[in-house]
Inverse folding.
């Protein structure tokens, strides 16, 4: 029958690759999106995860169509990059509200159903930046680092009920965001990556699908780097 899977921000990039990987494995996949059109082949639910009422309504719709969410991939996120002294209160708050608080919000809502089922998988999509830091990304790095502490706390709270909580931390990945970087910047990044290339969205998706599988049932509170080696030792 497949599991009920929700991928937030699943309409493009890494999120869409993750949604596709689960669908190909036979799961029933819903994706949330904030703007544009939902991708074909999934249950698309328009939802701004910074609005509690929209999150609750999205889960209600998904539960009616697919049953309680058994696998949550908290992927939705934004960037507002700028140097610290130029970073406005809104630049800071909007990134924290979406990336960190939004992830807390969807995880809390998903956990209610998982506790009743006595099983579940929660995966937060962090970033190597959350551990290494990056100039111009104080807000983004803080939000992604926060996911790790949140995941590990949830792992301790929810583990006794058969719910695992893990983090996947991508490095630099071939997406629309990296494609627009200046060539010189791309060369600088590539020079720091032991494997000498950017990752593929499918490589992130495969790691996420595995950590949410039965095969990974004894792993919780872990941070899985998928970064070509750039963050090793962190």
């Amino acid at each position: 029958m497949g599991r009920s899977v929700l991928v937030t921000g699943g309409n493009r990039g890494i999120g869409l690759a993750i949604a596709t990987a689960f669908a190909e494995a036979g799961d029933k996949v819903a994706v949330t999106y904030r703007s544009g059109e939902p991708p074909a082949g999934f249950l698309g639910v328009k939802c701004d995860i910074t609005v509690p009422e929209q999150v609750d309504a999205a889960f209600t719709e998904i539960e009616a169509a697919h049953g309680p969410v058994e696998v949550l991939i908290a992927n939705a996120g934004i960037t507002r990059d700028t140097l610290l002294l130029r970073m406005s209160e809104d630049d800071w708050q909007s990134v924290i509200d979406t990336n960190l608080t939004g992830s807390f919000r969807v995880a809390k809502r998903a956990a209610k159903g998982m506790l009743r089922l006595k099983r579940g998988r929660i995966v937060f999509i962090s970033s190597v930046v959350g551990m290494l830091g990056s100039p111009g990304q104080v807000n983004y790095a803080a939000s992604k680092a926060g996911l790790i502490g949140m995941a590990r706390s949830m792992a301790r709270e929810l583990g006794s009920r058969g719910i695992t909580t893990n983090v996947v931390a991508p490095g630099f990945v071939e997406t629309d965001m990296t494609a627009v970087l200046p060539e010189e910047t791309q060369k600088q990044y590539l020079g720091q990556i032991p494997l000498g290339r950017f990752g593929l969205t499918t490589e992130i998706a495969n790691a996420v699908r595995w950590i949410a599988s039965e095969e990974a049932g004894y792993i919780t509170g872990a941070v899985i780097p998928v970064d070509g080696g750039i963050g090793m030792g962190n």
Remarks:
- Helices lie at 13-24, 52-66, 89-117, 129-132, 138-158, 176-179, 183-192, 201-211.
